[in-house]
Automatic annotation (TrEMBL):
Native organism: Microbacterium helvum
Lineage per the UniProt record: Bacteria, Bacillati, Actinomycetota, Actinomycetes, Micrococcales
Domain Aminotransferase class I/classII large, residue spans: 42-395
Gene3D superfamilies tied to this protein: Aspartate Aminotransferase, domain 1, Type I PLP-dependent aspartate aminotransferase-like (Major domain)
Pfam families: Aminotran_1_2 (PF00155)
UniProt-recorded name of the protein: Aminotransferase
CDD domains given in the database record: AAT_like (cd00609)
Family of this protein: Belongs to the class-I pyridoxal-phosphate-dependent aminotransferase family.
Length: 406
């Protein structure tokens, strides 16, 4: 047998995918879980995941779906008709937008909806305005569409909300889209009706697509309403893609069920993409999501009230730490303290100069996992998810109080 000559060089991998960073939030959460598995009493504020079980009536609907062989077959790539109808009804109810179910695509979680939204409206070299702090996936999804994210930062002094003036200063002739998220991950900030209207009208004036992530719209507090940008500015509906899902509101993160909706021409090409990318979403998860959207909402309200209680606790306790500024979040389940007052000072023999170094110090010395601001934009901030048990939440913050009192 003739021996095969060795390759002169290893085949090259994709430059585009090689440049994509690992999800920082998942990375920190995985590290925390590994330490917990090794026996260390780590308390993790890293993952944006409710600690509640999925409501039983939703689980029961999935179990019932398993008895129907029709759910074992291919179904329409854009989603089960009944679920698309339920999503259209929810959108009218919560976002004030009346759409035809044909304008809905059911996706494998909100992340796929975000990915497909940028693939739909971005061409190579286009710029997308990205208010910061931002969810760690947005810039990577923009880059995967060959676009360029343009960060527009708003600090704690602005409650982490950008203004029209800031957006206009960042706009160029290559700007094609704006990311709008209210309530926000990672900050929990919620734009007012007036703020939302001003941004929507600005986008309409300049013919800019809006990618609006509404996955936290039902998790708001103190009587706040997360006003959809298409409700504040109806004219914006012709250039807006809404993304949403059941993960956060219904404690269904592992079910991987999200959706996107928008103008018919945009949804048509996004649907073509999905038909080749993955076809239909798991039918059992779709049946569970249908039950979630159409069933009783009392457990959802109970979870929201628990998040509200934890929100008040974490803000009050973090505010006791000298050098920490905590704007009060009105939505989602995150606190985003400004910790620049802790940097450049010695703590337990270490002098952190960035929030990345600070997060490492906190994990090592206090056995508390938090996500540094570098994952969401500029350094100097931390994200803490309060979607964990009340006792663990309080204990974790008290560990931070002891660390930074030393």
């Amino acid at each position: 047998m003739t021996e095969r000559a060795p390759l002169s060089r290893k085949p090259k991998l994709s430059d585009k995918l090689s440049a994509i960073a690992e999800s920082a939030t998942l990375k920190v959460d995985a590290k925390a879980k590994a330490l917990q598995a090794a026996g260390r009493p780590v308390i993790s504020y890293a993952a944006g995941e409710p600690d509640f079980a999925t409501p039983q009536f939703i689980v029961d609907a999935a179990a019932e779906a398993l008895q129907n062989p029709a759910n074992f077959r291919y179904t329409p790539a854009a989603g089960l008709p009944a679920l698309r109808e339920a999503i259209a009804a929810k959108t009218l109810r919560d976002s004030g937008l009346e759409i035809d179910p044909s304008q809905v695509i059911v996706t494998n979680g909100g992340k796929q909806a975000v990915y497909q939204a940028f693939q739909t409206v971005v061409n190579p070299g286009d710029e997308v305005l990205l208010p910061a702090p931002y969810w760690t996936t947005y810039p990577e999804a923009i880059a995967l569409a060959d676009g360029t994210p343009v960060e527009v930062f708003a600090g704690a002094d602005q409650d982490y909300k950008v203004t029209v003036e800031q957006l206009e200063a960042a706009r160029t002739d290559r700007t094609v889209a704006l990311v709008f998220v209210s309530p926000s991950n990672p900050t929990g900030s919620v734009y007012t009706l007036e703020e939302t209207k001003a941004i929507g009208e600005w986008a309409v004036e300049h013919g800019i697509w809006i990618i609006s992530d509404e996955i936290y719209q039902n998790l708001v507090y103190e009587g706040t309403k997360a006003v959809s940008i298409v409700e504040a500015v109806p004219a914006a509906a012709d250039q807006t893609i809404l993304v949403n899902g059941v993960a956060k509101t219904y404690a269904m993160t592992g079910w991987r069920l999200g959706w996107m909706l928008g103008p018919k021409d945009a949804i048509k090409i996004a649907g073509n993409l999905q038909s080749h990318l993955c076809s239909n979403v798991n039918n059992i998860a779709q049946r569970a999501a249908l039950a979630a959207l159409t069933g009783p909402q009392d457990e959802v309200e109970q979870m929201r009230q628990a998040f509200d209680r934890r929100r008040r606790t974490i803000v009050a306790e973090l505010s006791k730490i000298d050098g920490v500024e905590v704007p009060t979040p009105l939505g989602a389940f995150y606190a985003y303290p400004d910790v620049r007052g802790l940097l450049g000072r010695e703590w337990a023999g270490v002098t952190p100069t960035t929030s990345l170094e600070l997060a490492d110090l906190i994990l090592e010395k206090a056995e508390v996992a938090v996500v540094p601001g570098e994952a969401f934009g500029p350094s100097g901030y931390l994200r803490l998810s309060y979607a964990l048990g009340d006792d663990a939440l309080l204990e974790g913050v008290q560990r931070l109080q002891r660390l930074f009192a030393s």
